[in-house]
């Protein structure tokens, strides 16, 4: 048996023990574990979004774009944060979709 196969068997045994101890099916244990991980990542992403929004006094990427067009936000100093905020908002939306699919 390969090391990987042994690890898989050990993981399955641990899942079974934990599920039994928590009086859950292995499927429910896995589902709740994934949901918990998604929720934690979602909190992390939302925190990063909030930090950028607070720094520039904006509520979204679109708000930042509007401020660029109006000339009330300097692009040179904030371009990377705009890109990061855009990515984080996408990631937040995707995590929300995944979490919703588990409910």
Count of strand segments: 0
Task: Work out the helix count.
Answer: 4
Rg (C-alpha, Å): 21 Å
Helical residue percent band: over 70%
Question: What's the overall geometry?
Answer: elongated
Write a structural description.
- By secondary structure, this protein is mainly alpha-helical.
- Helix 1 crosses helix 2, helix 2 (26-56) packs antiparallel against helix 4 and helix 3 packs antiparallel against helix 4.
- The protein contains four helices and no strands.
- Helix content is 85%, strand content 0%.
- The chain has one domain (3-102).
Give the key terms.
mainly alpha, 4 helices, 0% strand, elongated, 85% helix, 103 residues
Quick structural gist:
Helix content is 85%, strand content 0%. The protein has helices at 3-21, 26-56, 61-70, 75-102.
Present the secondary structure layout.
Elements: H1 3-21, H2 26-56, H3 61-70, H4 75-102
Helix pairs in contact: 1-2, 2-4, 3-4
């Amino acid at each position: 048996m390969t090391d990987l196969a042994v690890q898989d068997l050990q993981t399955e045994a641990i899942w079974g023990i934990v599920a039994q101890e928590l009086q859950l099916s292995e499927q429910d244990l896995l589902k709740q574990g994934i949901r918990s991980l998604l929720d934690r990542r979602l909190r992390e992403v939302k925190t990063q979004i909030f930090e950028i929004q607070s720094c520039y006094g904006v509520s979204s990427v679109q708000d930042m774009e509007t401020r660029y067009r109006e000339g009330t936000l300097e692009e040179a100093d904030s371009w990377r944060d705009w890109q990061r905020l855009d990515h984080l908002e996408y990631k937040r939306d995707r995590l929300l979709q995944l979490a919703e699919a588990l409910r």
